[in-house]
Amino acid sequence: MKNTAIIAEPGVPFVEVTREFDAPRELIFRAFTEPELLVQWLGPRRMIMTIDRYDVRDGGSWRYTHRDGDGNEYGFHGVFHGRPSPDWMVQTFEFEGAPGHVSLDSLVLEDLGGRTLARTRSVFQSVEDRDAMVSSGMEQGMNEGYERLDELIARLAVTA
Amino acid sequence: MPTDQLSAVFGALADPTRRAILARLIGGDLTVAEVAMPFPVSQPAISRHLKVLEGAGLISRRRRATARLSHLEAEPLRDATSWLARYQEFWDESYERLDTLLMTMQDDHRDGSPPGDREGRNEP
Predict the structure, then answer these.
(1) What ipTM score was computed for the predicted complex, to two decimals?
(2) Which of A9, A44, A120, B36 is the most buried (most CB within 10 A)?
(3) Is the predicted pLDDT of residue B87 greater than 90, yes or no?
């Protein structure tokens, strides 16, 4: 069981997501940078991803949309900064539903000898921006007996 | 749900006693004394917890005769958890799909490589 760890500490506008993969980092870098591969995995299964452009180079821009079964479409776009490499890939990220609220995202792929640790870090313009995306209480909630809450929700769902 | 209400909900849920109080209220409305029964804390302490939960919209309180009953409001809790779960879910599911894709990519890679090229590398 592989865990996607999300860290969103209270009071700072950062979110970090880490995840280990059972593959060499070159492959993961390809999966992050080749549109025909990216489209196969980024986002929930129930969403259909369409990439309008994905120009992986310094100053290159990208845009994609996720569409759900009800026809709702969510657009995202941004620009790559610096020459993307497995060591360091930096891009801006903007949800078109909240124009002007841009985060600066970086991806680092750490070689663990055949396995790879993918570490993404998002820097938001403010804590409020960050909290609009992920709750400040999220980490706390998850670390402090989140199972308990899961249980509670499961029971709520049954009694609803 | 507005962000400030979400903060209130998450703040309220961050405390294990308050989560346990919510769990108790699933069974039905309770007085403060009834809520307090299983907890090793004073009734005023429970009252403070109830006030926080009420402020977050997680419970409502009404009077019946002389008793003050606490009632679980499930809606904000559902909103909060679905909202909170979204980010985690997004990455969990994306990365599971990436696992599958990477497996296919490695198979393709192996097919085109000399036998034993990769297999030997991960042996201890």
Answers:
(1) 0.75
(2) B36
(3) no
